[in-house]
Amino acid sequence: MKNLTPTAPGSPATTAAIEVEKLECGYHGKLVLKNVSFTVRRGEIFFIIGGSGCGKSTLLRHLVGLNAPTAGDVKFFGRSFTDADTTKRREVLKTFGMLFQSGALWSSLSLRQNVALPLEEYTALSRREIDELATLKLAQVGLTGFEDYYPAEISGGMKKRAGLARALALDPEIVFFDEPSAGLDPVTSRKLDELILHVRETFDTTIVVVSHELASIFSIADRVIMLDRVEQGIIAEGRPRELAANSRDPRVSEFLRRGDLLPQ
After folding, report:
1. Number of domains forming the structure of the chain
2. This prediction's pTM
3. Domain holding 70: CATH number?
């Protein structure tokens, strides 16, 4: 199996794909995260990590517009997403895709029909063109021959691949992943990591991953931010191996070195 060690981002990655500025996130008047600021470079694989309940998925939901922040701003390629009007938000939405934790496939639709949904929503392509593109996207994630299968007829790993095919339907510049390895066995999880690397390397896609899985963090992440529930924000940022080896914060070293799983 190939080495998954990520390559250092090249010169295109010096331009920000995402800029988060003093973001505050919460639900029903309860603050979950405060003063969160970070930048994701073009073409890098960026992880949001931390223990359960620290706000990883909450941050992701606010980044992609599923929830509105109480303060702060999120910019994609220099354009504010938080303050954009409906028309501009729709344009920004075309620049990214998302793979939800469960895959979030419609059970009543075939895999091809699931992948076709964003093409139907955001393009003026003909039915034939949409079906051809959906078939191509499924092929790109290794699901050729499964176009007419329904979600109940395939494995968990295949559901994640189908969800990724849908996330890639509009050729997005950024793809978000919410706990992509959740519920997968180690071998299937490793293959999904390989696929994420393939997407980045083939399409120069910027990848943002929410995860607590050390195997994935150390295998494919270029940089990470670590959230903490008590601090309600970021307590560490950098390359995961460097943080594991050098951080003097016991919360960071305990998380990244738990079980002595730090790769040599």
Report:
1. 1
2. 0.88
3. 3.40.50.300
